[in-house]
Recover the amino acids of this structure.
């Protein structure tokens, strides 16, 4: 089990990083929302099963456990796939119902969205859901109620903040590492990894950056975080990123198409290298470890 892997790595003094997959279909990404309507989704081949199966095989091959932040919409349609993810030792967590960004909702609609998603994922996977990742890292300074809603619903952790300036998302001055957004609750936020390049924060936690930039950049960034800052990195990718055969969306903006389709064929070998080179584990285990560290630091003033 992962806890044992993690303890062995921890005994060696290695930092165990958080490995995550955001389970959504190629047509559900923010980049294509202006071209593909939500009511067209159910007519399209989502290719999720074949892509997730390939990811499960890759994780088994390198002996890594991970967290699958899954859309409720996907869970509802792929119950047996979710059971297989859980049976192979991975964590199932929530990515919301249908990829609606949090800052486009109010507190009531956000509550309804995560409740519907949680139920679908728990019904399909048979595991309790205690982790959440906002679509497109959309928890930021505009949504102070989102953490309250997650805490009140019993979530243990969120990994929904990108502490960096980006054209589609980002909360540039949020903490770069695990923090308790509401000091009176136990909820832990695990922001996606950034590295410091000439004193500036740069996104280094996966997605398009990992796929498009040379592998050496990610290696440098994660080493910096682990060895110099002594913190775990949080890395994420999507099932469609290992799928060069996915349909091409005509009519999407050129920038979106460039970002979405670049180097898909290099993704699987690159992932294999990354997972082999560093220690990786589930996000719930990491959240627990970070919560203990935050508690300890709060008791011992610097
Ligand atoms: Zn997503």
């Amino acid at each position: 089990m992962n806890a044992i892997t993690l303890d062995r790595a921890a005994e060696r003094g290695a930092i165990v990083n958080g490995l995550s997959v955001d389970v959504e279909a190629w047509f559900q990404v923010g980049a294509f929302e202006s071209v593909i309507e939500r009511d067209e989704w159910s007519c399209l081949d989502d290719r999720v099963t074949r892509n997730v199966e390939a990811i499960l095989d890759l994780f088994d091959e390198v002996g890594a456990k991970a967290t699958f932040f899954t859309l409720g919409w996907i869970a509802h349609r792929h119950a047996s796939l979710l059971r297989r993810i859980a049976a192979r030792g991975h964590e199932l967590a929530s990515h919301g119902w249908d990829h609606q960004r949090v800052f486009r909702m109010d507190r009531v609609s956000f509550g309804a969205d995560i409740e519907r998603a949680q139920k679908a994922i728990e019904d399909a996977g048979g595991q309790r859901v205690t982790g959440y990742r906002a679509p497109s890292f959309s928890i930021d300074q505009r949504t102070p109620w989102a953490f309250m809603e997650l805490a009140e619903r019993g979530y243990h952790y969120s990994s929904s903040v990108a502490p960096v300036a980006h054209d589609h998302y980002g909360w540039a001055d949020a903490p770069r590492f695990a923090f308790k957004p509401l000091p009176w609750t136990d909820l832990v936020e695990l922001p996606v990894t950034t590295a410091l390049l000439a004193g500036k924060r740069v996104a280094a936690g996966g997605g398009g950056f990992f796929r498009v930039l040379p592998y050496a950049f990610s290696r440098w960034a994660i080493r910096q975080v682990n060895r110099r800052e002594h913190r775990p990195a949080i890395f994420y990718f999507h099932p469609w990123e290992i799928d060069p055969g996915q349909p091409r969306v005509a009519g999407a903006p050129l920038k979106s198409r460039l970002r979405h389709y670049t180097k898909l064929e290099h993704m699987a070998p690159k992932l294999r290298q990354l997972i082999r080179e560093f220690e990786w584990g589930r996000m719930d285990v990491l959240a627990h470890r970070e919560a203990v560290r935050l508690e300890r630091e709060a008791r011992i003033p610097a």
About this structure: Residues 22, 24, 95, 99, 135 surround zinc ion (CB under 6 Å).
